[in-house]
Amino acid sequence: MKKLSYFLSVIFIAVGLCACSPDDEPVIDPPAETPENPDSPENPDVPDNPDIDPNPTAGKTLVVYYSFTNNVHTVVSDLCTQIDADTVRIQPTEKGLDYAANNYAIGSAQIQAIRDKPGDASSYPAIDPVEVQFEAYDTIIVAAPLWWSNMAAPLQTFLFNHGAEMAGKRIGLIVSSASSGIGGVEADAKRLIPDGNFLSPSLWIRSSQIAGCHDMTAEWLKKIGYIK
Ligand SMILES: Cc1cc2nc3c(=O)[nH]c(=O)nc-3n(C[C@H](O)[C@H](O)[C@H](O)COP(=O)(O)O)c2cc1C
After folding, report:
1. Nearest residue CA, atom 14 of ligand 1?
2. pLDDT tens-digit map of 201-222
3. CATH number, residue 173
4. I need a surface site. Which of 13, 52, 84, 108 has the fewest CB within 10 A?
């Protein structure tokens, strides 16, 4: 029975696992302007956090991410060439939605629903089921697009459902936006993973920097103490 449930878990992870393969989602241009809220100050280059165990590679690492236009997917794919990690890509249940159409109307409505009632499960858009054996991981890297100053809604759904299971784990945060500062996404991550040990700093990669993300992720891995 144990073997069967382990086997099923592996299958579930394999379904959500898309370690570096592109998918069919549309590729759109990011907004030239911040749709809402002016840019927050640049993510401060905070020195390594002395409170965090400086040996994050001691256990296994999971990268969980969502990507609509594949910018975050590109970053995660590159990251996978530098670290040994399992990856899970979150997929909304409703396929084919263009979150950017009509001045980002769908994405905006999803974010507004969460802002209105962040404690209500019905505020979060449905995602495909993903089964993760959280006990297997010491470090979880959350990689997120920014939507209207917040974390993209489908990834918030995953964290709303599973953030409590990440208690005590080292949490790294990577955020991609067109131009907006990432303070709101950091706040979302901390709200949804209230007992995570957040590694500092978070990594902010603008859409215009995606092509050069390799050096940024390599430097970030050193800053958070992941790579010496
Ligand atoms: C619904 C929606 C809202 C967005 N809102 C913002 C925003 O407020 N500020 C910003 O700089 N970029 C915004 N963007 C752009 C994305 O954050 C940016 O293009 C990011 O790199 C996309 O990552 P992805 O390709 O992995 O989905 C938005 C994109 C979408 C689809």
Report:
1. 147
2. 999 999 999 999 999 999 999 9
3. 3.40.50.360
4. 84
Instruction: Give the ligand 1 atom nearest the CA of 179.
Output: 11
**What is the residue range of 113's domain?**
2-19+53-223
User: Is the CB of 124 within 6 Å of ligand 1?
Assistant: no
- What domain count does the chain have? 1
Task: Establish if 169 belongs to a structural domain.
Answer: yes
3-state secondary structure of 176: strand
Query: Is the CB–ligand 1 distance for residue 16 below 6 Å?
Result: no
Specify the ligand 1 atom closest to the Cα of 149.
8
Residue 176 lies in a domain: yes
Mean pLDDT of 24-38: 40
Question: What spacing in Å lies between the alpha carbon of 14 and ligand 1's midpoint?
Answer: 27
Cβ pair 190, 159 in contact under 8 A: no
Query: How far apart are the C-alpha atoms of 175 and 183, rounded to whole Å?
Result: 10
